[in-house]
Specification:
- Strands 5, 6, 7, 11, 12 and 13 form a six-stranded antiparallel beta sheet that branches.
- A hairpin with a 4-residue loop joins strand 5 and strand 6.
- The longest helix has 15 residues.
- This protein has two domains: about 140 residues, Immunoglobulin-like, CATH 2.60.40.640; about 110 residues.
- The chain has two helices and 19 strands.
- With about 260 residues, it is mainly β.
- Helix content is about 10%, strand content about 45%.
- It holds the Pfam family Spo0M.
- This is Sporulation protein.
Length: about 260
C-alpha cells in the first residue's frame, strides 16, 4: 500500500517533493520503506540535503503548564548535495529502522487515541529548509507485547487512553527521550481501583513491562505496592499465564488495601 505526502513548492524555482511510503503498518524493530520524489521546477536548483526521520507528538509537563511537542527520534540522511535540473524527477528510496522502544499505535486493528507517530521529510534548498507534515505510520505490538495486552482484555479491562510523555522511567532500558502510557479502566470485580497504566520499554532481546495502579501525581512511585516492573523475553513470553499473573498481583494489592 502506498501512502503519499506532497510538500509545498520550494523557493522561486518551484521544486516540489512527494514522499511515498510502501507500507504504513510496522512493528518495533522493523523497517518502514518508501521513496522521496523531488520534482524539478522551472530552473536548476542546488539541493543541499535530503533526510527522512521518525517523529512523535509528545506531551511535556511543566510546573504549571502542559503542552505537546514534536520530537524527532530517528533521522536518516539520504545522500549528499546535488543539482536538480529544471523539470527533472529525482527519486531516492529509503528505509528507516523502527526503534524497539517505539510506542504502539494500534491494537487489534484499532488506532489508539492520543498516538501520533510518522515519517517526516526534510529538504534543504537554497539556504532554506522545507519539512513535511507527519506521514502517519501504524505501529503494531510485538507478539510479547500483544500477550500482555490480551491478558488485560481477558480479565475484562477496557482501553481508556494512551499518550506519550517526555521523560524517563527509572530502572528501565529506556534510551528514547519519551515513553508511552496505555491506560485501562478496570472491570467491576476490581472495585476501588481507578485505573491501571501500562508501559513497554523494549530492546532486541527483552522488554521492561511497567505497571501502576491508581497512579498518583509524579513519575512512577517506585517502592509502592501499586507499582510493578518486570522483564519479559521477546521469545520466551509464552511460558507464562499473563492473565493469571496480573490477576494475582491486582488481587494481592487490592486485598491489602481493602479495595476489593
Amino acid at each position: 500500500m502506498a501512502f503519499k505526502k506532497l510538500l509545498a513548492s520550494l523557493g522561486a524555482g518551484g521544486a516540489s517533493v512527494e514522499t511515498v511510503l510502501t507500507e504504513v503498518n510496522v512493528v518495533p524493530g522493523g523497517v518502514v520503506q518508501g521513496e522521496v520524489r523531488i520534482q524539478g521546477g522551472s530552473v536548476n536548483q542546488d539541493i543541499e540535503g535530503l533526510s527522512v526521520g521518525l517523529q512523535a507528538v509528545v506531551e511535556v509537563e511543566g510546573q504549571d503548564t502542559e503542552y505537546k511537542q514534536n520530537v524527532e527520534f530517528t533521522k536518516v540522511r539520504l545522500g549528499g548535495a546535488f543539482e536538480l535540473q529544471a523539470g527533472a524527477v529525482h527519486a531516492v528510496p529509503f528505509g528507516i529502522e523502527i526503534p524497539w522502544e517505539t510506542p504502539v499505535t494500534m491494537i487489534d486493528g484499532q488506532s489508539l487515541r492520543g498516538m501520533s507517530i510518522g515519517v517526516t521529510t526534510e529538504l534543504a534548498i537554497a539556504r532554506a529548509v522545507d519539512s513535511s507534515d507527519l506521514d502517519p505510520i501504524n505501529v503494531h505490538p510485538l507478539p510479547a507485547q500483544k500477550a500482555i495486552l490480551d491478558a488485560f482484555i481477558q480479565l475484562g479491562f477496557r482501553f481508556k487512553s494512551a499518550d506519550m510523555e517526555r521523560g524517563h522511567i527509572r530502572g528501565t532500558r529506556q534510551t528514547l527521550p519519551f515513553y508511552q502510557e496505555i491506560e485501562f479502566f478496570p472491570p467491576s470485580q476490581y472495585r476501588g481501583l481507578n485505573q491501571v497504566e501500562l508501559s513497554f520499554v523494549a530492546d532486541e532481546h527483552a522488554m521492561d513491562v511497567v505497571l501502576e495502579m491508581d497512579k498518583k501525581p509524579g513519575l512512577f512511585s517506585e517502592g509502592s505496592d501499586t507499582f510493578r516492573s518486570f522483564q519479559v523475553g521477546l521469545h520466551d513470553y509464552q511460558s507464562t499465564d499473563w492473565a493469571g499473573y496480573l490477576n494475582q498481583w491486582l488481587s494481592e494489592v487490592g486485598s491489602r488495601r481493602n479495595w476489593f
